[in-house]
Q: What sequence folds into this?
């Protein structure tokens, strides 16, 4: 991973921040994308740049803005003159109740979970081809089995899974495309304790995962899986066995 250039979207918090730290610790130069969380993004960049000077670049962009996709990639190439890995991590997640779904919710969930990953991948592809790089998408186990009350989110993630497989076929042999499908890694804010207990009760390992479990899997797909493409790796403690 030394000096390879990695762009991670939605990387100022939660799983995205863990992915940034994990890949940076392995020697990568990281481009940390954020939208509103400047203070958090800047704190991570300062921390990691203190370890390795000029190794982290910040990019602010609204992934609903169609002009942002090519601009983000152009900025990465201008700074580092290469791109080795794109991690499509940014995601919106909230319930959408049938009968109450509006176009704003639809556009938001589709844009962050499917539209932006596709068009960022398209913009990045010529540069990833030059480095025989890869794309890793952060999907969800509920792309395969729907989560009640979250139909639009689940449809968007299902589209991301199909995008992963389609781009693997379209971009091979020069670019590998895979995805990670998390299970119970970080609870949504305000989730009822009884719901949490029920989820863990139907998880084979009877425990919640850690964001670093996702980061380690991303590292595996980037660094240690040269003969894998078009695959969706569930990191869910066996939760998908009982969905």
A:
């Amino acid at each position: 991973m030394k000096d390879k250039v990695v762009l991670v979207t939605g990387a100022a918090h939660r799983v995205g921040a863990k992915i940034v730290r994990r890949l940076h610790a392995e020697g990568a130069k990281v481009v940390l994308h954020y939208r509103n969380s400047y203070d958090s993004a800047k704190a991570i960049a300062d921390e990691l740049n203190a370890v390795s000077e000029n190794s982290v670049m910040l990019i602010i962009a609204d992934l609903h803005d169609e002009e942002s996709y090519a601009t983000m990639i152009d900025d990465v190439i201008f700074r580092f003159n290469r791109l080795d890995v794109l991690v499509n991590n940014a995601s919106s997640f909230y319930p959408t109740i049938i009968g109450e779904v509006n176009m704003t919710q639809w556009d938001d969930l589709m844009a962050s979970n499917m539209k932006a990953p596709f068009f960022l991948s398209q913009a990045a592809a010529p540069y990833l081809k030059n480095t025989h790089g890869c794309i890793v998408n952060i999907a969800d186990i509920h792309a395969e089995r729907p989560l009640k009350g979250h139909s639009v989110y689940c449809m968007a993630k299902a589209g991301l899974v199909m995008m992963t497989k389609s781009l693997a076929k379209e971009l091979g042999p020069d670019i590998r495309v895979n995805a990670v499908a998390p299970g119970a890694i970080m609870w949504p804010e305000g989730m009822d304790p009884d719901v949490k207990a029920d989820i863990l009760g139907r998880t084979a390992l009877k425990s919640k995962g850690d964001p670093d479990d996702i980061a380690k899997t991303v590292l595996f797909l980037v660094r240690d899986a040269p003969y894998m493409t078009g695959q969706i790796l569930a990191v869910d403690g066996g939760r998908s066995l009982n969905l």
About this structure: The helical segments are 14-25, 38-51, 68-80, 103-131, 151-171, 193-201, 211-223.
